[in-house]
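Notes continue from the previous slide.

Worked example: a multi-chain complex. Inputs as given:
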Amino acid sequence: MFRTLARLIHDPASGPNTVEADATNVFLIHPVQLSRWLEQVWFFGGQSQIAWGSLTGLSRDFLGSTDIVGALTMPIQLRDTQLASGISATNNPFPTVPPPEPPIPFSPPPPPGAGLPAGLPWEHLMYALLIEQTGVLEICAEVVRRYVVGETLEVPTIETEHWLRATEELFFRDPPLFNIAGITSSLRPDLRISRRNAYWRLFGMDLAHPLPPGHGAPAGSEPPWKRDVGIFNSRFRSVLVEFLREVWIGIENLKNLVGAKPTDDAYIAELARLLSDMLGMRRRGGQLAREEFVHVTWLSWFHLTLEYNTPLIRDLKAEGPESDPADRLIKLGQRVGITAPPHAREYFELADLMSPLLRFIELGAFNDPSAAVLLYDVSGQIGRDANRIIDLWQMATGDRLKDTAVRTAPSPSGAHTGGRVPIGAGLASVGATPAPTGSNGAGRG
Amino acid sequence: MTAEPRTNPTVASSTDGSESGIDAIRLLTQAFNGLLDSMRANPLLTPPLSPKNVEVALAYQGYRQGLGRAGVSVLVRVERDPKAADVIDLYGPFPDTPLTIVAFNADGTEIGRDAEHTRVGENRKATIPGLKPHQLVARVEVLDEHNVPILFGGTIPPVSPTTASRSK
């Protein structure tokens, strides 16, 4: 959602092509305002999610229940008065830096994104899994830790001080009481474990890198995110891989006019329906809707941090080429002694592609054999996305999607577990333990 | 890195939001991402898209835009006319071809359609027969001359009691 906010608060006075400035503006907003905006966007973003479900009469309810957003939302009078975010999309209320001009502007509702006819959907939980797989969270956490405990990094500019303060307050302490983001409690105190729990339940997949020291269970014991989950989607990954293989066969044979055509629309639809059912079953009654919102929000903050040459990136001399968060991540990791995974680049790109496609799979858009052509006709957007996903998934995970003669189950711990990979490479799936790694993503350089 | 650039969401709310004032017809062609063009050019190679598949393709494109992915607009901004409860305002521009504007209930049933809507500059005013003030419009579709949906409008809430009292 923070990447969305950067677009929403675009300052036309700063001229075109100012995405870096827009991203920086997000980091200059006071964290209490950002926190309250999330409360607001849960409502109108969630409503738009539901509206999208009806847009094409797709068969499954968004977020598992059309009632879940309203059930968990804050009373509108409170949300839009005493607890309004005060962020405006129209008044460009950003402090001049340096120095900030007190008081920090506070604008009455509506907040950015409210009332957008196109709606304001948020990403699928798969986005969070794939972005976290890059190790961005652990690297940024280490950057924040180093800044707040010592002077081993460059002197931060005022803009970076804003980012440090907001990052620590928003993501490394408990959220305000009764906030929509408050999914930690004495019953589930660790958000790292909560995220892994959600990934496990919905996708039957783990991050490849283990938890930092002090967060995990003792060696040999069951990972805490797998305890008491009951039913989880243990087959998700293998079905997804089979689905992508079948789509690839369709792509390969799209223009095949001679001989047998191995494309099997009915089988593609059957696999799509199975994926849709698995995701839908875990979301019954709106389960995981709030968790998904929180987790994708979290990861979008760190993704935005790396998406451009933002103040933190400039201060730490980790600048990279346009639209290359992986390059910046690698440099940032080097500053704090953590090696980013070799496939971070693929995971960043995969996240943006998988999120909408998986949402539509979940909604049942491809449950009918007649819709299979949309997936493998690469002249359309869906086909192009599916084709790119197949490339990137194979590169990142090692699952052989294009070798149609190969029909092996995915490696439990991914195909890239060897070598110098402190933050794991391949996604670990059911039955796997996290890939053995060197410094497990919490390395202290 | 080949990650796509992101777009401003206001682009997704109007067909005129593209970067350089591309004309509406080209926008719409792009909205189909070449899919239909490809099929027309190669009718033997790929089966024609069904209206349902066109809906899915358009909705997917619109959803991507909502998430901020680059792409052309397939969403049109729609509002209830505050002075007439059965009138929907649609903000263009629109292609210069015969269009039909259809309003749907949340359950997917059709509320009504208007093929002879009024032009107001680049915008359109569609009178939907049977649309009541208290009625929610779950979605709006703009159909081309072949009754193929080419644009989507989002949900429009019922008009307020105050507004309704002024409706015709």
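Summary box: Chain B touches chain A through 54 residues (CB under 8 Å). The two ends of chain B are 56 Å apart (CA to CA).
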